[in-house]
Design a protein that fits this description.
- By secondary structure, the protein is an all-alpha fold.
- It has 16 helices and no strands.
- Helix 2 packs antiparallel against helix 8, helix 3 packs across helix 8 and helix 5 runs parallel beside helix 7.
- It is globular.
């Protein structure tokens, strides 16, 4: 129990204050956490690429797509839990938030064990199905098998972070992620090379470092929550909250699975892309693996802003503050265009130096990486607009239309574009498929935001929806005009006004 002079901070109220500064302050720790994770992956890639060679770097690109798929599988349930907690906090109902946390924790634990048990025997077979180059396959299989053992800790850390963000706290997850990344950065070279008394484990050592760091991070975060007697901490006397509430379970699965399928579908499309890339040989595969390291950073601002918008919008949905919900969307899109645009421009200007961090200076691989990067990197500007708008609309529980939009643009545009045009454009068809699908997704997302029925959606079947605008007035011409709060929410009534 913490001393009386240092009581736990209450959940952050995102329903008050200026939109831009509140959103930015809340989003920055999320962005910092995303950058830390990407930096960690890049540092590991530098070690692996320079010490084990291009074959091992191609192995990381293949194995990380599977890892992203694993995290995507649980992403939706985590987002559903985050939104439920955020809506409860928005209407000042901490008892409901704790019920969500208890049921969600049980759901996450069960899912993580099932994924780990299923993945261990299938790791090498999945990599073979992806046409992983023979030179990279042993490295990738050794890495991925250990990663499956780490899944319960990866899921637990993601769950705890999501719950805290739903309550308005993005700073604490960032601090514990900083601990995890620091541990991983220290442990990777020790286990990779076998420094001191440690065995030289190669690629398996990099994965083992990840497992140890995440396990220690989970233990540390749980200890901190208990020590601070956090408002959302479930005490021993309240263990009944871990018994599944089937109304909440239905919401977590019914709303979470479509959101998770978005990430799974994105991961599956990336796996389809890398399978095509692999067929063009080790030079193209290594170049693509290096470009993926840069693209991970480029996506970070949009993903952080989208996650922040989702939480902020959900709290305001719970409070019935519909005008603020619309202003959150417009501000989020503006932040994405500015931050992502600046990052893309910088990585094009300095692409040779950035890509050389992962590849030998000069040579065919670096030239190939620069070529494909300049074609595909612009797609993440359009992706960012889509991600932010999806974050806002899912704050009410509208999850199926974003899934359908993603399915149509990934599997109806990106994969067919890359497949059918390769006989004409060669490998360039793969790179051009990224901006082609991203533009289509952005236009459909804008259309659904302006004219879709997402404002009337709800997460729990037993909930009455907050007062929703009876109709959305027609927006003036212009692709983003519908993001203007004066047009979307003019005269909207507010429930639970503060």
């Amino acid at each position: 129990m913490p001393p009386a002079s240092t009581p736990p901070a209450p959940p952050r109220d995102l329903t008050r204050g200026p939109i831009a500064s509140t959103l930015l302050v809340f989003a920055l720790p999320i962005l910092g956490g995303n950058v830390l994770q990407s930096l960690n992956g890049s540092i590991n890639a530098v070690w692996i690429g320079h010490l084990l060679g291009p074959d091992a770097l191609a192995a990381i690109a293949n194995a990380n797509n599977i890892m992203f798929l694993l995290l995507g599988a649980v992403f939706g349930v985590g987002m559903a839990a985050t939104i439920l907690v955020a809506q409860a906090v928005g209407r000042d109902d901490l008892a409901a938030a704790r019920r969500v946390i208890g049921t969600s924790a049980t759901t996450f634990l069960g899912a993580s064990v099932l994924v780990a048990l299923a993945g261990l025997p299938l790791a090498r077979r999945v990599l073979e199905w992806m046409d992983t180059p023979a030179e990279a396959l042993p490295h990738a299989a050794a890495y991925l098998q250990v990663i499956f053992l780490a899944v319960p800790f990866l899921y637990a850390l993601a769950f705890l972070s999501a719950i805290l963000r739903g309550a308005g706290d993005s700073r604490t997850p960032f601090l514990f992620l900083l601990l995890v990344v620091a541990l991983d950065i220290v442990l990777v070279p020790l286990l990779l090379l076998g420094i001191g008394p440690l065995p030289a484990m190669g690629m398996a050592g990099a994965a083992t470092a990840n497992l140890i760091a995440n396990a220690l991070g989970v233990v540390a975060m749980l200890a901190w929550l208990r020590h601070r007697d956090h408002r959302l901490w479930i005490h021993r006397s309240e263990r009944a909250l871990y018994r599944p509430d089937w109304t909440i379970v239905r919401a977590l699965l019914g709303k979470g699975l479509p959101m998770g399928l978005q990430m799974v579908m994105l991961s599956a499309a990336m796996i389809a892309m890398i399978a095509m890339v692999n067929r063009h040989g080790i030079v193209t595969a290594a170049a693509y693996g290096a470009a993926l390291q840069l693209w991970t950073y480029v996506q970070m601002p949009a993903m952080a802003i989208g996650a922040a918008c989702s939480t902020m919008a959900a709290q305001n949905v719970g409070a019935g503050q519909w005008a603020r919900v619309s202003r959150v969307a417009g501000t989020g899109v503006a932040f994405n265009l500015l931050m992502t645009g600046v990052l893309i421009a910088a990585l094009i200007v300095f692409d040779r130096h950035a890509l050389a961090l992962f590849l030998p200076a000069g040579g065919e691989i670096l030239d190939t990486a620069r070529h494909l990067n300049r074609i595909a990197i612009w797609s993440f500007l359009f992706f960012g607009v889509t991600f932010v708008l999806f974050g806002v609309v899912r704050s009410t529980g509208a999850v199926l239309p974003p899934l359908l939009i993603l399915a149509a643009t990934l599997w109806g545009v990106r994969v067919p574009f890359a497949t059918w045009l390769q006989p004409v454009l060669g490998a360039d068809a793969i790179w051009w498929s990224f901006p082609a699908s991203a533009v289509c997704a952005m236009l459909l997302a804008i259309g659904y935001y302006r004219w879709g029925g997402w404002r009337g959606a709800r997460l729990l079947a037993s909930d009455e929806p907050a007062a929703v605008p009876a109709e959305v007035p027609s927006a003036p011409p212009g692709p983003l005009a519908g993001l203007c709060p004066a047009e979307v929410d003019r005269g909207a009534p507010r429930a639970h006004a503060r």
